[in-house]
Hints:
- The protein is mainly α.
- It contains 16 helices and 2 strands.
- The protein has a two-stranded antiparallel sheet.
Amino acid sequence: MTQSTNDLPGANLPPDHIPNSTEFFGHPSGLHTLFFLELWERFSYYGMRAILVLFMVAAAEAGGLGLPDATATAIYGLYTAGVYLLALPGGWLADRLIGQQKAVWYGGIIIAAGHFALAVPMQEMFFVGLVLLVVGTGLLKPNVSTIVGELYPEGGSRRDAGFSIFYMGINVGAFLGPLICGFLGESINWHYGFGAAGIGMLAGLIQYRLTQKNLGQAGAFPQTSDGPDQTPKLWRGVWVVTAIAVAVIASVWTGVIRINPVAMAGGATGLIVGVAAVYFVFILARGQLLGFEKKQVMALALLFIFSAIFWSGFEQAGSSLNLFAERYTDRVLFGWEAPASWLQSINPIFIILLAPAFAAVWVQLGRRNLDPSIPVKFALGLIFLGIGFGVMAIASVYAAQETLVLPTWLILTYLFHTMGELCLSPVGLSAVTKLSPRKFLGQMMGLWFISIALGNLFAGLVAGRFDDDSLADFPMLFGSVFGVTVVGGIVLLALTPMLKRLIGQPH
């Protein structure tokens, strides 16, 4: 049975839930506010990410931390995974206590503080900064996406197009961030690059506060309530968890607790799988869902698995592909060597160029009832990603011969990865807003980001195998990623009829 628009999140809200004006490319004016907030937040995130691994592996005399590749990429995986892992409690906090708009505001403030902590040239402040970034992004990231969905209570292909425009804003920031932060970090001082990321986040916060009225009541209040008697208990629980987290961080700071990043990343992988499984079971068993809601949550659970596979490959960009760019790519242009981090801007360039085209294609196909189903789009995303790693497998054959390769190989790889991303990522965000039970909307968005967290952990662990001592193994390593992602796409195509029944789409 096809899903009625009345079953979609936000469909039964009062008319003043969102502003009626359509001032931003034919979309609600609130999309303007969220577009530029996310632009600056992603500027800060991707600008910092572009130099993170390079800073950690750089020698101490060059201003870096001098860490081994495996340790640096494991920390990278833990950080990027933590960013998305904390999206689940961030979604819960918004749903239950403060609403999405406040969660976005407070999250942005904490993110800015994290970047400025990284700008302080002290190793202890480096790890404090990473923790603040994880916490802040966990608050901001799931909730800003949720508000985007709330702007389109009618659902349909128009919401998909809105998410694609929103995604284009993300990538404008992702394009500028590595160029500015990467240049400052690699060419002048690593901490200047981190400081520039903090300034970008401040710009986003100012813009958000000045235009927040465009959002109306979308995300202004908690979606669910356990009653006024339960609210103080929930807040006490929040403060207890916060106190425990601070105590653990202090113990690590003082050396009372010593961690092995590689071992920690491996353990965290199992923990995340367990958390996700338990949460899906909890929602299905105790969430008091209607029959069609249970089916849609089951569909999201299956898509969760393939999303994790996709991101485990895609997030090699900031680790193994970044190191490949620095060590094995000819970056000399007219006698000047470009920063390796600048190649991190290739993917966003392609996003900016291709996102409007993909959005238009989905809308046009939707008008003709030919729009590919969500699982088909996911499968295409995995296959395109795999083809990109096939390109890298070939490039690594030349690199293994101790020959610097042209950046063309990485550019072509990022083209295929971008096509895969556009098939999967904005569609996945839109699917969560479509298929999630309304009372669990923020939490389901947070749970969705856990799939990205899992992918990032895998990415960090895999990237640890890409070092100078294993150069001859590069073709096999990239080839294995190619095989896993392409096979995953084929399996998903085979599962599409079943998934369409769960989602409620016609055959």
